[in-house]
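Troubleshooting: if your tokenizer reports a length mismatch, compare your output against this known-good record of 508 residues.
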Amino acid sequence: MNASNMQHLLAMCIYMAAVIGIGLYFSRRANKDAEAFFLGGRSLGPWVTAFSAEASDMSGYLLMGLPGLAYWTGLADAGWTCIGLALGTYLNFLLVSKRLRRFSVNLDAFTVPDFFSRRFKEKKPLLLIIASLTIIIFFSVYAAQCLSACGKLFANLFDLPYESMMIVAAVFVLVYTFLGGFLAESASDFMQAVVMITVLVLILVMSVGAAGGMSQVIANARSFDGYYSLFTTSTPSDSVINGFGAGQKYGFLSILSCLSWGLGYFGMPQVLLRFMGIRSENELGRSRRVAIIWVCISMAAAVFIGVVGRSVPGLDYLSNAAAENVFIDAATAYLPPLLAGFACAGVLAASISSSDSYLLIAASAVSQNLYRGVMKKDASEKQVMWVSRITLLAITLIAMVIAWNSNSTIFGITSFAWAGFGAAFGPLMLFSLFWKRTTYAGAVAGMVAGAAMVFFWKLCVNPLGGVWGIYCLLPAFVFSAVVIVAVSLCTKNSEELDDAFEEMKAAA
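Known-good structure output:
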């Protein structure tokens, strides 16, 4: 390990020590009881809510996946995806946040499966079980992409085996999540959101300077057919560095497919929990404004780092998976080693802020919803906490198995898990909050339909190509919504359920 590597390591150790310090600080409060561990006692302020919601969502794909996609195919794919995500962020805060906070307090629910189960007053915990299993399945995939990002980061910086570095990252995240629970996670996510946006802007500025200025970057990007446009897409060659074929028209279905990423926000447990955990629904307006500003700046910087990378000497990649290192390589090439270490800590920040959220929510699904809600209803707080920690370990091991292949792209892993949550939970969350006529049977059918359609479309329909290549979230989201409406219209609610909905809607 040379002197530069030592400085990289020193900077990242300082950062990780700060994160662990936050976990230790909050560990006593977090272990008070299950609600404190999983929801922080509903004590988040507006800035922490906004920053932690976005940091827990914008995982390694913000600093590695998006720049890599933009580098490889140009503006269209990455640009329309970011527009969809920005719209989804705004609408989720605007439409869902206040009503979910109000309903969850009224129902005394502090997990998403809890909310669905209590919203429909189910006698047998079928909805609770389905929601919990959905969380376990898709968060295992989500956690895998976070570990993959950390593994690629350390392997690239220190020239060490990817698999070994991924295991080190998994151990660190696991220990940290053990310590502090939701409060530590949210507080560190606030710090990590600041780190992420700072290093993105810094690396973008430095990369533009290294490329000879923005005019040179734009001229170079336009020299590749279809690269610098939202309405055409480039066709990279696998065999020629910086080689492209003829550009292709980026049609309406492709644009709609990318915009549909925004639909995923309505079903993202890590974001929805922040709405449930804020101390007052009246502070959500400020959170919305802070969140949308952070999202727009961060995603724009991430995309243009990839575009600028095409003009920077030495940043040449022969595959999309390799191109996901463009942020790390730019940081180490154009910053002093110590600053580069802090910049790369941004990747660590993104991955940690997301993976701890995913692990914590998966643990709550097993310990709070399945163990206490189904298997052992008289379980003590101590027993619930032990089950949650065992679950954290199990999910981490599963995620490590999924992330073992270093050639898989972070963006690809993320897109599947995002679609799963968006289709399974998104339509049902909207109908649960806004349509009194939604029935229990409709809720169960819609959740199952959305999750199943993601698998069916991804595995059976997408390979057909052409118009069938549309992102699986869009057809699955629509299918789930149609099933909820159709089944609800064919079944009835009890008067008790209708009255409870009106009471929650009117509650201050």
